[in-house]
Amino acid sequence: MKKLYVCFLLIFSFSIIFVTQVSARSLSIDKVDIKSTILPNGDLLMKEAFTYTFKGNYHVVRRSVHSGHHNGIFQFQAYELLNSDATLETMTQEDLSQLEVSLENNRYFATLPVKDEKKTIVYSYTLKNAIKSYNSYSDLIIPFFAENKNHDIDLHNVTIDIIFPEKLDPNTYHAFFHDEKGEVIRKGEDFVRFSTPVSRMYRLTEIRLLFPSSIMYEQQKLPDPAPLKETLDLEEASVPKEIISEEEDIAKAYTTQRKMRNSFERMLPIFSVALGVLAILLLLLPQRLVRSKTTSEKLLNYDPLYLYMIDREGTKDSYAFFAGLYSLVEKGYVSVKKIPTSRRIQNDPEAPKNTLSFIFHPYKVKLAEGEKHLVDWLFIGKLKQGNRLFSLNNIYGRTKREKKNNDFSYREELNIFHKDESIWFNNLIDKMTQTKMLGGKLYLIIGRMFMIIATLSVIAGYYTHSGSGFWLIMYLIFAPFLIHEAWVRKSRKRILTYFFLSIFAGWLVVDSVVFPEISLFIITLAIVFFFTPRYILSKEAREVKAEIRHFKAVLSSEGVPSDVSGAELEKWVTRAILLDARKLSQHATHLSIVEMDNSLHQPLTDLFISGEEPTSYLIKTWKSSEPSLTSQFFDALNTRTN
């Protein structure tokens, strides 16, 4: 548990640092200079300088390039401008530092680690066949910043120069600037200049240039789609009010989405921190912290199965059936003796030479329902005297040699054993929850609610930061099935798996800008659920848990007392195995070899002292018998289709 605490604190500390960095950052674009050179073959050579002011930590900058009016984007490169005095006209290669660029959904991301600085980034690229040349004129349309989610920030002080391949009489070409506040400020022989004080987010900033096609001497000419005068008349005509209204509606819709996105980005880190605090509170539950100074001998009077259930907090592991057996042993219903392991097992050099056999002696006293189920399930062999027998030899899994030979002949028997064990254990849990010894509602509420929240966070992430609609559809197809499986089975592994599948879905579905916040949020959901106990212990059970914790501390520091013997020593060893199995090896030295004289009455102690503790090898063979993940997958498919 200490390792879990340390792991959680590290993750939570990282989360706090990450959240602080992400939630406090912002950027502005203070100046944009663009120079577009028309090439005679119809291509457009682009050079752009964006001046950013960063507040907080950033790792990338983004440039979105329109996908219309050209046949592709080529040779996109990004540079950091090192010389603040250099301009697009005067800069040299020595003034630039090239940045690594990646492409995602027609958006280019340049790697730029920066914090609280002002930087100028230069982009260069070529738009293939951006100019359409006809017999009478050429037509150039460039929507530099469009009415969509990529234009999600105001760009200030925008200047755009369109440079001709050769000199043109200004009276022979026509320039138009589609921008709320923009205008054509210079028409020269070499270039035409457009300028706007601000290109508002989600609003169109577009230029159109109609010029003589004679200078496009390397480009094939097409028939005129319409006379030049007609094209000019359409371009110069006033924009109808309904179009203006439509553009306003589009802008309002994007603005609303922007506000929702900003709220989403701000709230996710806050929720993540709140979940981290909740996880800490779960770590501070009384059943995890309460201590006891009671004597260890008091624990010997408790039923081993009851101690096991309290120690595991209602979660079954490989020692469950063993705890049930020794509950019957200490009540006198079952006797136990040491016997040789079967010949099949002894062929394994790692196997113990001896194991345990249990004999049920019928009594007039009526067994409890759970005890009767345990006896009917395990004790199926009979002796001559009519007593019923159970041996650990009956439930060994694959040996090392059988694993090499890919022998699965014992899998079916083990499956039946574990299914019966689960039925018996679940009935035991039902009884303990009915008596209020255990409470499992918190686990179910948090697990089921958090799966739904994780799903909604991915959907909300797509709505505010849309990425791939295809992967969202795939996620929504499989999510209900996976939630149903985890919901019904109440499996911690399945629920945790769903959280991490949701993170993977988020990576596919949402924009990379918000993915870190969504992934962090779902991770904190998983952490809170991971630290939610399967069952909440009652006050009485918490007191017993404290006594168990004290007993473990004594075992860890002092080992099994050397002055105990006989049946009392057997109880110590039984509880050491059931409650602290991971530390058995260091306790063996605390057992007195003198006790071997009574080994006929202490079979478990005898095996423990001789290094043949029976459960360790048994559990090892069970793990060896488990099928591969691929086999489990196809077995599950066969089960559902049959």
UniProtKB/TrEMBL annotation:
Keywords: Membrane, Transmembrane, Transmembrane helix
Keyword NAD: no
Entry's transmembrane regions: 267-285, 442-463, 469-488, 495-514, 520-537
Domain annotation Predicted membrane protein YciQ-like C-terminal: ranges: 302-556
Entries under InterPro entries matching the protein: DUF2207, YciQ-like_C
Any single Pfam family the record assigns to this protein: DUF2207
Domain of life (superkingdom): Bacteria
DUF2207 domain residues: 28-211
Protein's recorded name: Predicted membrane protein (DUF2207)
UniProt source species: Lederbergia lenta
Source species taxonomy: Bacteria, Bacillati, Bacillota, Bacilli, Bacillales
